[in-house]
Design a protein that fits this description.
The chain has 421 residues and is of the alpha+beta class. It has 3 domains: 30-67; 68-79 and 362-417, no CATH class; 104-296, no CATH class. Helix content is 23%, strand content 39%.
């Protein structure tokens, strides 16, 4: 009885938990406290490698920004304002009259129609009309054709011009001599439908016996139409006048827009010197209405911007040792000087007055500025642009900000010309 040991009472304090530290130590295991440092080391490695990746990404972005960098250069040209009050004699190329200002002439035509009510009938006699192209293959000098110059068709019918015209001289195109030409409207010598003819060739009877008879000629551009004798529907005079004014306004605006769109950048048109000619075309009966048709022709001299500005600068006392243009011609008063006898005036010259206070601006070549800056250091900007005599000042911005040189490609450099400064 004494050898029997009583059972030990089990209490909560005496029970060993399966995952207790004591049990782990007793079994030779590793405690949680001992495992934590290993987890910490793995996190540091992830942080380290993540930092390297981020750095590489930043370096790549920097390299890309450097490779695809850009620059913007704002340039202020030299300017000067002066009073101008002078008379200009301008001549076309090949003119026998010497002139410091040259011009070339451009001409366009357009038609517009409108149907209006007829108010009755009336006996009328109307002449056929149409457009011909007159050629000067005689010399490089212009030739004026006087009012009512005759043109004879291949079948012997006579048509005339109502106003004097100037036929330009020969010109050289790609090494070949081509005749000068001009489009004009001609009218049948007599009324009647027999003068309504198709396309044909024309001679100038007034040059017969002269070498010009073979070198001045004309070809139809349109058929001849409108010749008539008999009763015809009529339009009230007030309605006709109002319709013509409406059509003329439409034609004027359309022709100005069209001619402006065709002007090269180096040329300018002076609207004060633009002339318009309006003509009635044959009316076409349409039941109880009449189709009215109106033709307008615009003629304008075109001037080289630098040539004209340089001349005006010299006349106003501004040195024209650098290429100049005018900021605008709209502030100037410009008008033709009317010749006393237009028949004796050199047809290849015009004379006009110019007055006002324009601003002259130095001409800048954006392409040459870009070429000069490619690959250069930003610190050399002043020295580089000092070789451009028309530049007053300039500033540059290069992106990204840490790049100190301009891009290696011209297309990555933007040049902005600030005329308002």
């Amino acid at each position: 009885m004494q050898d029997i040991k009583p059972k030990e009472k089990r209490t909560i304090r005496n029970i060993v938990l399966p995952n207790s530290t004591k049990q782990e130590k007793a079994s030779g295991g590793v405690s949680r406290k001992q495992k934590r440092p290993f987890k910490k080391d793995g996190g540091n490695r992830k942080f380290f490698f993540g930092g390297i990746v981020l750095l590489l990404i930043l370096l790549l972005i920097g390299a890309l920004l450097t490779t695809f960098g850009s620059a913007k250069v704002t340039v202020v040209p030299k300017t000067a304002t002066a009073a101008v009050d002078t008379e200009v004699v301008a001549a076309q190329s090949g003119s026998e009259t010497p002139a410091e200002v040259l011009y070339q002439e451009i001409s366009l035509e357009k038609t517009a129609t409108k149907t209006v009510p007829a108010t009755g009938e009336k006996y009328v006699e109307e002449q056929a009309q149409g457009t011909i192209t007159v050629y000067n293959n005689h010399s490089d000098s212009s030739q004026r054709l006087i009012t009512r110059t005759r043109f004879e068709s291949s079948d012997g019918k006579i048509y005339r011009i109502k106003e004097s015209v100037v036929v330009p001289g020969q010109k050289t195109v790609n090494g070949k001599t081509e005749p000068g030409s001009i489009d004009v409207t001609v009218y049948a010598d007599e009324p009647g439908e027999e003068y309504n003819i198709g396309l044909t060739d024309f001679t100038i009877p007034g040059f017969e016996g002269d070498p010009r008879f073979d070198t001045f000629y004309a070809k139809s551009k349109t058929s001849m139409s409108g010749g008539f004798k008999g009763n015809k529907k009529q339009v009230a005079e007030g309605v006709l006048d109002e319709t013509n004014r409406e059509l003329d306004t439409t034609l004027r605006a359309a022709l100005l827009t069209e001619i402006q769109a065709q002007i090269p950048d180096n040329l300018t048109i002076l609207e004060s010197l633009v002339t318009f000619k309006f003509e009635d075309l044959p009316q076409t009966p349409n039941g109880d209405s009449v189709l009215l048709e109106r033709k307008a022709t615009i003629t304008a001299p075109l001037f080289d911007k630098e040539n004209l500005a340089g001349y005006l600068a010299a006349k106003s006392g501004i040195p024209n040792d650098i290429p100049l243009v005018l900021d605008s011609y709209t502030t100037l008063t410009i008008s033709y000087v009317e010749a006393e006898n237009t028949e004796e005036t050199d047809p290849s010259t015009i004379q006009f007055t110019v007055s006002g206070s324009p601003t002259f601006i130095g001409v800048l070549d954006e392409s040459k500025i870009k070429q000069a800056l490619v690959g250069k250091s930003k610190s050399d900007l002043s020295n580089i642009l000092s070789s451009f005599p028309t530049i007053a000042s300039a500033k540059a911005t290069i992106s990204p900000f840490w790049i100190s040189n301009f891009p290696e490609k011209e297309e990555e450099i933007a040049v902005v010309i600030d005329n308002a400064s």
